[in-house]
From TrEMBL:
UniProt source species: Psychromarinibacter halotolerans
Gene3D superfamilies: 3.30.300.30, N-terminal domain of ligase-like
Biological role: Catalyzes the conversion of acetate into acetyl-CoA (AcCoA), an essential intermediate at the junction of anabolic and catabolic pathways. AcsA undergoes a two-step reaction. In the first half reaction, AcsA combines acetate with ATP to form acetyl-adenylate (AcAMP) intermediate. In the second half reaction, it can then transfer the acetyl group from AcAMP to the sulfhydryl group of CoA, forming the product AcCoA.
Protein name: Acetyl-coenzyme A synthetase
Family: Belongs to the ATP-dependent AMP-binding enzyme family.
Length: 651
């Protein structure tokens, strides 16, 4: 029995009829997938083309101290050949990528699989000519342009490992990532237009490379043609070289467990971790989730509005869709440029069938009025999706009524950089939606709710605790680049025998999962993951700052905003000017996405006698929730709290 009938949204009969997976098939497939993963994945692994087929399917161990994850380990394949070459015979002239530029008046590009093949080969040959070899790391710092996809696939083609750094990150953040993964080369663009504004990517890269080995080369995509500085011998015009490079480049046979990419993501402590994904399992999982979660059918136009700098862009703009021979849309711009109708204009223009975005984008558009949606013909849409954070009921209803006209399934997909693909999500033809719930697990995923203190599984429904996964799935990250111990400590130490997600979660009477947000010191700002520790270390790097503590607080549009408590050095005056200066400082240290929303001067921070900052209290003060501060008796100096509250109220 469903516990809340008026808030359940079932797919239409028509949708179910055409769906890959209907209600009965979901249960049947799910049961096999978790009871007999070898058979299930052994079968589904065949969706890829293997140069040497695998004989072993699953070889995984979650025991702390011995964590090891291998899928299809003796199989040999090439990821780029799976995303491009194998489609040439059947769909060479089909559009692989639709590129919609930032400027709505600039012409969209339709890149066929044949053209994609040629571009990827040429780019691969350029990389080879620059001395990039199998296993070498290549950092990609590009805007949302087709060259980003060419670069990813070119790396995959020759067995190099890419690491994309979101184009909104600062030179410092870029330098740290180049150094951490020991990249041989960075690929960037001259400048990047976005929402009508221009980011100077090449000059950011120049600034970053000052902190890197002078052996690192810089390939520059001349995208806008804007003038940039040029260092002969280091900087290379990649488009010019592609023109003269050979249009063919044999794909290199790679082991299923060879790394495909590293993607840095924030955790609760220390610097961002390089999440490592490998070739076979990741691609099987990205492709399978793209097909089943979105009920993608041959010929559909699929649009994921994320950026390739995040995992969502990796799995659902490039790898998943292209492995399935889909038409995938790449959008360079932002939802509000030139106006709040842009998403819907693009859906109409390219007859998009599945649209996947973040709740923060929906919330930003909601405030602009329904007319921006109503103007456009959205009849091509068959399904909507969200990712990145829990979706609030207002945003869900708006998305459902205005965009979906009350008729389309909405898939709320819970997953992480670490998981490679969707973990908890409705299978749209089978699982009715409840607004705000990611519903039920994807095939092969065994989510459990653990008691946060005891680490034991809470059986039965309803249940509330922390979310962990009891067994491996093919898309799981394999390690932290260069630090397997950190991988084990982060995900397998606290709750032995499980992968710990870092999220809190509730399971309702019907077994539906409701993510309640992070239980660690990670905040989710506009769907971007950020470690509060990163912002704190940026703040304390400023000469006037003695100490800083950063917490998240509820923000209408961003989901969470960044709230900073700052203690200044002795003798430094707290002025508005200094606040502005600190905001700017954090922007340049990390990037615009980390800009503080609030800075509160804090003469002292609430600490335990052992010196640990009590963030729980700081969170409550930031939320203006003084009644629920909880136990403050363990504080070294409880009067600090009164001062902070007083300051907060006077703001
Ligand atoms: C959050 C993005 C609720 C969650 C793919 C997770 C979500 C973190 C959802 C991962 C969702 C992601 N509902 N929360 N549908 N999707 N999250 O690594 O806290 O950037 O741990 O991966 O985002 O963020 P990441």
């Amino acid at each position: 029995m469903l516990d809340n009938p008026e808030n359940i949204y079932k797919p239409s009969a028509e949708f179910i009829q055409n769906a890959h997976v209907g209600p009965d098939k979901y249960k049947e497939m799910y049961t096999v997938s978790v009871e007999d993963p070898e058979t299930f994945w052994g079968e589904h692994g065949k969706r890829l083309d293997w140069i040497e087929p695998y004989t072993k399917v699953k070889n995984t161990c979650f025991d702390f101290g011995k964590v090891s994850i291998k899928w299809f380990e003796d199989g040999v394949l090439n990821v780029a050949a799976n995303c491009v070459d194998r489609h040439l015979a059947t769909r060479g002239d089909q559009t692989a990528i639709i590129f919609e530029p930032d400027d709505p008046n600039a012409e969209a590009q339709h890149i066929t699989y044949k053209e994609l093949h040629e571009k990827v080969c040429r780019m691969a040959n350029v990389l080879l000519s620059q001395g990039v070899m199998r296993g070498d790391r290549v950092v990609i710092y590009l805007p949302m342009i087709p060259e980003a996809a060419y670069a990813m696939l070119a790396c995959a083609r020759i067995g190099a490992v890419h690491s994309i750094v979101f184009a909104g990150f600062s030179p410092d953040a870029l330098a740290n990532r180049i150094n951490d993964c020991g990249a041989k080369l960075v690929i960037t663009a001259d400048t990047a237009p976005r929402g009508g504004r221009v980011t100077a990517l090449k000059s950011n890269t120049d600034a970053a490379l000052l902190h890197c080995s002078d052996k690192v080369r810089c390939l520059v995509v001349k995208h806008t043609g804007d003038q940039t500085t040029w260092i002969d011998g280091r900087d290379v015009d990649v488009k010019a070289l592609m023109e003269t490079a050979a249009p063919d480049c044999p794909p290199r046979p790679m082991g299923a467990e060879d790394p495909l990419f590293i993607l840095y993501t924030s955790g609760s402590t220390g610097k961002p971790k390089g999440v490592v994904h490998t070739s076979g399992g990741y691609l099987v999982y990205a492709a399978m989730t793209q097909e089943y979660t979105f009920d993608y059918h041959d010929g559909d136009v699929f649009w994921c509005s994320a950026d390739v700098g995040w995992v969502t862009g990796h799995s659902y703009i490039v790898y998943g869709p292209l492995a399935n021979g889909a038409t995938t849309l790449m959008f360079e711009g932002v939802p509000t440029y030139p106006d709040a109708g842009r998403f819907w204009a693009v859906c109409e223009k390219h007859k998009v069938n599945q649209f996947y975005t973040a709740p923060t984008a929906i919330r930003a558009l909601m405030g602009q009025g329904p007319e921006w949606v109503e103007k456009y013909d959205l009849s091509s849409l068959k399904l909507l999706g969200t990712v990145g954070e829990p979706i609030n009921p207002e945003a869900w209803n708006w998305y459902n009524e205005l965009v979906g006209k009350g008729k389309l399934p909405i898939v709320d997909t819970w997953w992480q950089t670490e998981t490679g693909g969707h973990m908890i999500t409705p299978i749209p033809g089978a699982v009715p939606a409840k607004p705000g719930s990611a519903t039920l697990p994807f095939f092969g995923v065994k989510p459990v709710i653990l008691d946060a203190e005891k680490g034991t599984e809470i059986e039965g429904n309803p249940a509330e605790g922390v979310l962990a996964i009891a067994d491996s799935w093919p898309g799981q990250m394999r390690t932290v680049w260069g630090d397997h111990e950190r991988f084990e400590a982060t995900y397998f130490q606290q709750y032995k025998g499980y992968y710990f997600s870092g999220d809190g979660c509730r399971r309702d009477e019907d077994g539906y999962f409701w993510i309640t947000g992070r239980v660690d010191d990670v905040i989710n700002v506009s769907g971007h993951r950020m470690g509060t520790a990163e912002v704190e270390s940026a703040l304390v790097a400023h000469a006037d700052v003695a100490e800083a503590a950063v917490v998240g607080f509820p923000h209408d549009i961003k989901g969470q905003g960044i709230y900073c408590y700052v203690t200044l050095m002795n003798g430094i005056e707290p002025t508005d000017e200094l606040k502005k200066d600190l905001e700017k400082w954090v922007r340049t240290e990390i990037g615009p996405i980390a800009k503080p929303d609030h800075i509160q001067w804090a003469p002292g921070l609430p600490k335990t006698r052992s010196g640990k900052i009590m963030r729980r209290i700081l969170r409550k003060i930031a939320e203006n929730d003084y009644g629920a501060l909880g136990d403050t008796s363990t504080l070294a100096d409880p009067s600090v709290v009164d001062d902070l509250i007083e300051n907060r109220m006077n703001k």
